[in-house]
Recover the amino acids of this structure.
């Protein structure tokens, strides 16, 4: 199914973006620069469904910088309505993809 493939692609992209953010932050980047790096890495995803949280940007050396990325992939096939109905509204029409990563500050 198209939704399965796109859902897996979204999950992988979110994971890559969550890893790219702390890499940028580890060398002293500020929160805005880290957020932009995450958005650039997740460029093929719909930014309006993307939430980025950055912690301890520009912190002290030896600490950690963290990034959490959440993305809601909207199902595109008619199957999403059926899944939503069968599950009693607990599933669909979105697949939530979340990933978090931390790196040590240099």
């Amino acid at each position: 199914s198209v939704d399965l493939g796109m859902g897996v692609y979204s999950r992988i992209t979110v994971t890559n973006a969550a890893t790219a953010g702390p890499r940028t932050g580890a060398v002293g980047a500020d929160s805005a620069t880290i957020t932009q790096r995450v958005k650039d890495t997740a460029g093929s995803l719909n930014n309006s469904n993307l939430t980025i949280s950055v912690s301890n940007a520009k912190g002290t050396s030896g600490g950690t910088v963290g990034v959490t990325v959440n993305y809601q992939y909207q199902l595109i096939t008619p199957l999403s309505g059926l899944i939503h109905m069968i599950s009693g509204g607990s599933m669909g029409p979105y697949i939530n993809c979340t990933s978090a990563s931390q790196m040590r500050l240099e």
About this structure: Strands lie at 50-55, 64-74, 94-104. The chain has a mean pLDDT of 89.
